[in-house]
Write a structure and sequence with these properties.
338 residues, Rho_GTPase_activation_prot, single chain, GTPase activator activity, Rho-type GTPase activating protein Rga5, 13 helices, 42% helix, mainly alpha, GTPase activation, RhoGAP_dom, two-stranded antiparallel ribbon, Phosphatidylinositol 3-kinase, Chain A
Length: 338
């Protein structure tokens, strides 16, 4: 039987009414219903395939931080302004675009980092759900395992996660690895990042006060960050969904994207009401790591999209910046070459 349209409508109304005042504290599935951004992976033959979605607040902040904060000392540890953080939370919790057209002028990287971390830490179901908690800790408690044996155990566990959680986890591991790779400047090695993000990614309410349990969970996240590239390379791309699936509702729109990979080519893919998809063109730019992120574009003409020039009078124009391509995923805002 098909879905009950009244029930679907009521679910959407409930989620969006809740998000009018609070996006932070919603479950991952509810946050994705409110506002989401698509991410892409690249096959060995250069073909780009749709991989999934992450919450727009994660994508927007993640892009800004990769662009501006990879060398910022104490990033994710230094506090931002409480007032500005509240303004950002309100922007990301308010329709109709839930912060998609946010202009970062007047905000610092520490404001964005605090909002990013707060959203992850306030998710009630955590990035790795509670029912998978012990499974993700187990490889770190088994003695005499090689790193490759642990990697294989984690590959199996990551593959068995619910799809939204797996997509978000892999994106977060990619982002944290980017910052860890610059720890000689930003003073935030993977150990520090694991300690900061462990409560939102891998935690148990009964284990928070026990140092040994905390240490195991932190070491598990540390291992995932340090070996994140191994988990992406084994994703069975043939089993992924279609390139750009239709949004589940008018409010939960799929985003316009640009993705960059280590194949030195650029893919521009966007969805619209007509389901139009724009494909890729080559460019001469070296990608430094395994992932690149996807960039949201405003809805200008095709030439404007391909050139990367902002549309006149676009509310997003002044916020569009050039991305530092870090890995295979890329998030939000438009990239400018040159």
């Amino acid at each position: 039987m098909g879905k009950n349209p009244l029930r679907t409508w009521w679910k959407q109304l409930r989620i969006h009414k809740a998000s009018e005042n609070k996006l932070f504290g919603l479950s991952l599935s509810e946050a994705l219903e409110v506002s989401k951004v698509a991410i892409f992976l690249t096959r060995k033959d250069g073909e780009r395939v749709f991989y999934g979605y992450i919450p727009a607040v994660v994508a927007k902040c993640g892009f800004f931080l990769k662009e501006k904060a990879t060398l910022s000392k104490g990033i994710f540890r230094v506090n931002g302004s409480s007032k500005r953080i509240q303004l950002l939370q309100k922007a990301f919790s308010s329709g109709p675009d839930y912060g998609r057209s946010l202009i970062w002028d007047g905000y610092t990287v520490h404001d964005a980092a605090n909002v990013f971390r707060r959203f992850i830490n306030l998710m009630p179901d955590h990035v790795i759900p509670l029912e998978y908690y012990e499974l993700f800790r187990e490889p770190m408690t088994i003695s005499n395992l090689t790193d490759m044996e642990r990697v294989e155990l984690y590959r199996q566990r990551i593959d068995n996660l619910p799809i939204p959680n797996r997509q978000l986890l892999l994106y977060l591991l990619d982002l944290l690895a980017v910052f860890a790779s610059n720890s000689h400047i930003n003073l935030m090695p993977a150990e520090n990042l694991a300690a900061i993000f462990q409560p939102g990614i891998l935690s148990h309410p009964n284990h928070e006060v026990y140092s040994k349990d905390y240490e195991i969970s932190q070491n598990a996240l540390l291992f995932l960050i340090n070996h994140q590239g191994s988990f992406i390379k084994t994703i069975p791309l043939s089993s992924l969904p279609p390139l750009v699936p239709s949004p589940t509702s008018p409010d939960a729109s799929s985003s316009t994207l640009v993705a960059q990979s280590d194949h030195n080519s650029r893919v521009q893919v966007y969805s619209s009401k007509s389901g139009t998809i724009k494909r890729w063109r080559s460019f001469n730019r070296q990608s430094r790591k395994n992932f690149s992120t996807a960039d949201i574009l405003d809805h200008g003409t095709d030439d404007q999209k391909l050139s990367g020039s902002p549309r006149k009078n676009s509310p997003r124009s002044s916020s569009l910046t050039r991305s530092g391509s870090m890995k295979l995923f890329h998030t939000l805002d438009r990239r400018r070459d040159g």
